[in-house]
Write a structure and sequence with these properties.
The complex is a heterodimer of chains A (about 250) and B (about 425). The longest helix of chain A is centred in the middle third of the chain and has 15 residues. Chain A has a domain of about 170 residues: P-loop containing nucleotide triphosphate hydrolases (Rossmann fold), CATH 3.40.50. A six-stranded mixed sheet of chain A has the order 6-9-10-3-11-12, with helices on both faces. Chain A has a four-stranded antiparallel sheet with strand order 2-1-4-5, covered by helices on one side. Chain A has ten helices and twelve strands. The two termini of chain A are about 30 Å apart. Chain B is of the alpha/beta class and about 425 residues long. Chain B has one domain. Helix content of chain B is about 20%, strand content about 40%. In chain B, strand 1 and strand 2 form a beta hairpin. In chain B, helix 2 runs antiparallel to helix 5 and helix 6 crosses helix 7. The model of chain B has no long low-confidence stretch (mean pLDDT about 95). The chains are: A alpha/beta (about 250), B alpha/beta (about 425). Chains A and B meet through helix 2, strand 7 and helix 3 of A and helix 6 and helix 7 of B.
Chain lengths: ~250, ~425
């Protein structure tokens, strides 16, 4: 599904290398988690994959299926099936949540040569999906993320994911700022979307989220590289002992 | 030549080409207005309130011709139940207009109103004269003296539908002065829609007397003609517990100066002036607002948003004057520009002058570019960069458009702006 090879990335405006040779392969239907200390390059990886400006790829490749991700615009990556759930979802005053969602869904459909969703059909689908995420009609009508609580913003991200039906979902610290109940609700939303044809890359600081969204593989990232990979037990090890042992072990 | 001599020269040249219309009941007001113009002289660049906007094309004797714009869109507000009054290059078109009758409203034309129409005499040129202090507005006095037509509306009850003045532009050289007078009696209400560019050069004055508890709503769209020039003035006086709301949409137009002069004279009055403008290239747009609070517990809002690109210029000069005794005043003013490239500029001069000690007045002015994070957010959902840019542009303008109270009218303005932006994407 997602294949990253020897990815090197620096900041565009300064000589600061952030990713120093990331190798990662996420198979179809798998859930991979990336953990790591602050500044290790986790969020940068998610931004580079989804095409945010400000980074320069100096070496390496990233493919989603047979699509060369690094060569195309963010919207083309989205249409190819990539989705990034933001750590800090952006507020957009004056643009209704529903208008935004429908514009996004139809833009992707159009880009893939599929038929656009009618207003009636869209409304039906979005209402059903919103309900399972406990998103009420008021939240759908309001401007995108404006006045939403932290939990509401994250639920809104998952709703977008559910509507856009991506193949590869990257969750960038989706658990940050969430209380226990909100985390459970968001995790249930994610778990409901797990399927054979859909993979997840979950970036997190805490093992707690992985209690809810059970990963197949856990990677530890430090200093711009993945330094260790293993099963879910690796996350428990981090939770108990911190990163110091692992860092010492690989250096 | 001295500055004063130069101003008088421009004024003399302009006046030489004009003759006072015989107005009967308005004769006295016109003669007074003419002497005001002669006293003040037409604006020059040296005037403090014309520092950011060159007045020469608005004051010179002969208007610069403006190419006609062939608009293939349906007319704005076309599907709204309304009473239409059509002017083509300032000339009333009876065939295209509706019958000028509406329950609770008396409607006449300035050009044909006869001598016994006494109510307009109390307003025509009167609010304009009040509005000449402390800042002179000579183009408005020129209009009072020489306006050839316009609409006189006296509202005694709740008007059942909006009145829509439609100003068409069919002559490349038309140079027009129109003057509207609107008087709302106590408790009356009316919505006025104004659409269209009006002429190659238009000088428009609208005086609005809003009596106690009356409500006046005004929505204006100044057409899409690229080369038209406009100097407009709205003068309004607000009575106790009255409401005044005016919104202007401007897209294109090489030169626009919209002045709005409001006086809140009765307690608990509420006034809002808003504007959204989208300017591209050879575009100069100036909003100049002066709001005087002269009563207690009144509220005023100024909300102006400008989207500028390819060298377009936006100007905002907004003042709130709170007189002694106007306690509990709540004044709000925001002017913002979205600069889509490095060539455009926005010049803002917010002013507060407060002589009461128990008031809330806030003002803010910003210039900014498209928010890159928001742009990436939209793109990451599959929305292309041009479409995402338009969505964020509409998002930026929303705060001004949201000042329109009527949802249907607000949506029409939003849809129109969205379709203009979409066209520009090509």
């Amino acid at each position: 599904m997602l294949k990253i090879e020897n990815l090197h990335v620096k900041l565009e405006d300064e000589e600061k290398q952030i990713l120093k040779g990331v190798n990662l392969e996420v198979g179809a239907g798998q859930v991979h988690a990336i953990m790591g200390p602050n500044g290790s390059g986790k969020s940068t990886l998610s931004y580079v994959l989804s095409g945010r400006e400000g980074y320069e790829v100096t070496d390496g490749e990233a493919h989603l299926g047979d699509v060369d991700l690094l060569d195309i615009e963010p919207e083309e990556r989205a249409a190819a099936g990539l989705f990034l759930a933001f750590q800090y979802p952006v507020e957009i005053p004056g643009v209704g949540n529903m208008t935004f969602l429908r514009t996004a869904v139809n833009a992707q459909r159009k880009a893939r040569g599929e038929e656009e969703m009618s207003a009636a059909e869209f409304l039906k689908v979005v209402r059903a999906k919103a309900k399972t995420l406990k998103i009420d009609s008021d939240m759908l009508k309001r401007p995108v993320n404006v006045g939403f609580s932290g939990g509401e913003k994250k639920r809104n991200e998952i709703l977008q994911m559910a509507m856009l039906e991506p193949k590869m979902c990257i969750l960038d610290e989706t658990d940050s700022g969430l209380d226990v109940d909100a985390m459970k609700l968001v995790s249930e939303g994610v778990n409901a979307l797990r399927s054979e044809g859909r993979s997840f890359l979950v970036i997190t600081h805490y093992q707690r989220l992985l209690d809810h969204i059970k990963p197949d593989v856990v990677h530890i990232m430090a200093n711009g590289r993945i330094i260790k990979s293993g099963g879910p037990e690796l996350a428990l090890e981090v939770e108990q002992n911190g990163y110091a042992d692992i860092l010492a072990e690989v250096s | 030549m001295s500055a004063v001599a130069e101003t008088m020269n421009v004024t003399d040249e302009r006046l030489a080409g004009l003759t006072l219309p015989a107005g009967g009941w308005s004769d006295a007001a016109r003669k007074d207005a003419l002497s005001r113009v002669q006293m003040m002289g037409l604006p020059s660049r040296r005037d403090e309130y014309w520092k950011y906007t060159r007045p020469d094309t608005l004051t010179q004797a002969v208007a610069v011709p403006a190419a006609l714009f062939h608009n293939d869109e349906a007319a704005l507000f076309d599907d709204i139940e309304r009473l239409k009054i059509v002017f083509i290059d300032g000339v009333f078109d009876a065939d295209a207009s509706d019958d000028l009758s509406l329950e609770g409203v008396s409607i006449e034309r300035l050009a044909t109103a006869d001598a016994d129409i006494h109510w307009a005499r109390d307003v025509y040129g009167v609010l304009e004269t009040n509005g000449q202090k402390p800042v002179e507005r000579p183009l408005a006095a020129l209009n009072t003296a020489f306006a050839t037509d316009g609409v006189l509306i006296h509202v005694t009850g709740a008007a059942s539908k909006p009145i829509n003045m439609i100003y068409l532009h069919n002559s490349e050289t038309s140079d027009v002065m129109l003057h509207n007078v609107i008087k709302l009696d106590a408790g009356a209400s009316l919505t006025v829609l104004e659409t269209g560019p009006a002429a190659a050069r238009i000088n428009m004055v609208t005086e609005v007397e809003v009596a106690d508890t009356a409500a006046f709503h005004h929505i204006r769209a100044q057409g899409r003609d690229h080369e038209r020039r406009a100097a407009t003035h709205i003068f309004a006086r607000l009575g106790t517990e009255s409401v005044f709301k005016s919104f202007t949409l401007t897209a294109n137009g090489v030169m626009t100066r919209n002045e709005c002069v409001l006086e809140l004279t009765g307690n608990d009055a509420k006034a809002t002036v808003g504007g959204a403008c989208i300017g591209d290239g050879d575009f100069h747009h100036d909003d100049t607002v002066f709001i005087t609070h002269d009563a207690e517990n009144c509220e005023s809002r100024q909300v102006f948003k400008k989207v500028l690109r390819n060298g377009a210029t936006g100007v905002f000069q907004g003042k709130i004057l709170v007189k002694a005794g106007a306690q509990k005043t709540d004044g709000y003013q925001i002017s913002q520009s979205l600069l889509l490239d490095g060539d455009s500029q926005f010049l803002a001069k917010p002013e507060l002058e407060i002589y009461a000690d128990d008031v809330i007045c806030s003002h803010g002015s910003t210039s900014g570019a498209i928010d890159e994070t928001a742009l990436f957010y939209l793109q990451s959902r599959g929305i292309s960069k041009p479409v995402a840019t338009d969505l964020l542009t509409l998002s930026f303008l929303a705060e001004a458009v949201d000042e329109i109270e009527d949802e249907t009218l607000r949506e029409q303005i939003n849809e129109r702006m969205a379709s203009w932006l979409e066209r520009r994407r090509g």
